[in-house]
Specification:
two-stranded parallel ribbon; alpha/beta
């Protein structure tokens, strides 16, 4: 806020205009006193005993119960995830809801369009929600493709309208696919890329979900859809009859610059604080604010093993420059920082100790924590956590270690550049 005051003071007209476009970081949607979900779930005794503070806080800020008997399958590659998603779309009987930030009309995008169109011909109700800014990543207008194929879609916070300009930096970054209200996919993957297993443009991870927590995932979509399209989704075909499917306890975390503001960061900080042995963070973008940095510093100085894995070469160069500042500070106080080799790694994972892990769309930066609408799952399961640890260990083995005092060895102009971009971290 101090930076904005300075800009407006130095250049009143231009500064005020820039603040009007980029300075607003909240929108107001219909206030929900409760999520009104059908699930009523008793707390798992093991989780109550071992993480009572985190559980009480998570329940309070999300207004969602912890659900049990869920199934989560880890989809270790982009190609495998897309293949499974399209396969499930082709077998869907009643409803499909899809929310994505980017939907490119490339090899993967064409396969999805065909599968969605064929599903609609079978009588399946299809709803597609795409972010306004994200829709522009496709070289050919994906919105025109939706229209040509008569696929029902809505655009989240369209920015071409003058009265929508103040929300230009508020984006829907969620990645959600729900089928018949009973099965779901979520994680960090956009609809973009290749199904060819030899095409390693970048690395990513995604997840297939069954069980009661699918209602949380569908609720995240339905709230955004009602806000964007004005249609209320309800009934058994949108929200299925959920049956036990596995052993994972999970809850959804809704986060965005509305009534769910700061939810993700609050829960993440609480999870950091309750760690007993190890914290592992894998993210393509690491630019959190000082409160998150301080929480990680406290954990490291308390004897907790803190590991952070980021790409050595980021796809957005100025984010790489800015992230050098906090990563170097954390390395100097004892955290382990690893720089993963190419291809660019877009994976988003957060693991605490032996059985707690978070998966979803959120990065570790101010955009995800303050500006974007995100969706993550907070999960408890030792078996899946062990599988994700193996995924991280494999990445670490092909990564470089950021040495201590790395930043101090850089030329003065590099440090100045990095600090200048770090100041602007809230808008990257």
């Amino acid at each position: 806020m101090v930076a904005w005051i300075a800009i407006v003071w130095i250049a009143p007209f231009v500064g005020s205009l820039i603040y009007w476009v980029f300075g607003f970081n909240r929108i107001y949607r219909k206030k929900k006193s409760q999520r009104n979900l059908s699930i009523v779930s008793n707390q798992n005794q093991y989780i109550e005993k071992n993480t009572p503070k985190l559980e009480k806080l998570s329940r309070a800020v999300t207004q969602l119960p912890l659900t049990h008997s869920n199934r989560i399958d880890v989809l270790h590659s982009q190609q495998y995830a897309f293949t499974e998603m399209i396969k499930k779309v082709r077998h869907t009987k009643y409803t499909i809801t899809l929310c994505t930030y980017i939907f490119k009309y490339d090899e993967v995008g064409k396969e999805f369009i065909k599968a969605l169109k064929d599903a609609q011909k079978r009588g399946v109700e299809v709803r597609i929600l795409i972010d306004s800014m994200g829709s522009r990543y496709s070289p050919r207008s994906i919105l025109k493709i939706f229209k040509q194929n008569k696929l029902p879609y809505a655009v989240f916070l369209p920015t071409h309208l003058p009265w929508k300009v103040p929300s230009i930096n508020l984006r829907n970054h969620r990645k959600i696919l729900v089928l018949d209200g009973k099965q779901a996919f979520t994680g960090g993957m956009n609809i973009s890329g290749s199904i060819n297993p030899t095409a390693h443009t970048h690395r990513d991870i995604h997840f297939f979900v069954e069980g009661p927590v699918v209602e949380h995932i569908q609720k995240a979509f339905s709230e955004d859809w009602e806000f964007s399209a004005g249609e209320v989704l309800e009934g058994q075909y949108w929200f299925g009859n959920y049956v036990p499917a596995g052993n994972v306890s999970a809850r959804g975390i809704f986060d965005g610059p509305d009534e769910d503001y700061n939810t993700m960061k609050t829960i993440f900080i609480s999870a950091i604080g309750q760690a007993k042995k190890q914290i592992q963070i894998m993210t393509p973008y690491f630019l959190p604010d000082e409160t998150v940095i301080n929480a990680l510093q406290i954990a490291s100085k308390s004897g907790i093993n803190v590991r952070i894995i980021v790409p050595k070469r980021n796809n957005i160069r100025f984010i790489q420059w800015a992230s050098t500042v906090p990563l170097s500070d954390l390395r100097n106080i004892g955290c382990e920082i690893y720089l993963s080799q190419e291809p660019f790694d877009h994976s988003k994972l957060f693991l605490v100790d032996d059985d707690l892990f978070f998966i979803g769309s959120a990065n570790w930066d101010d955009c995800s924590f303050k500006l974007n609408f995100e969706f993550n799952l907070q999960c408890y399961d030792k078996e899946i956590a062990t599988e994700l640890k193996s995924y991280i260990d494999t990445t670490v083995q092909r990564s470089e270690v950021l040495p201590k005092k790395y930043y101090d060895t850089n030329p003065g102009w590099v440090r100045l550049r990095d600090h200048l971009f770090y100041i602007l971290k809230g808008y990257m």
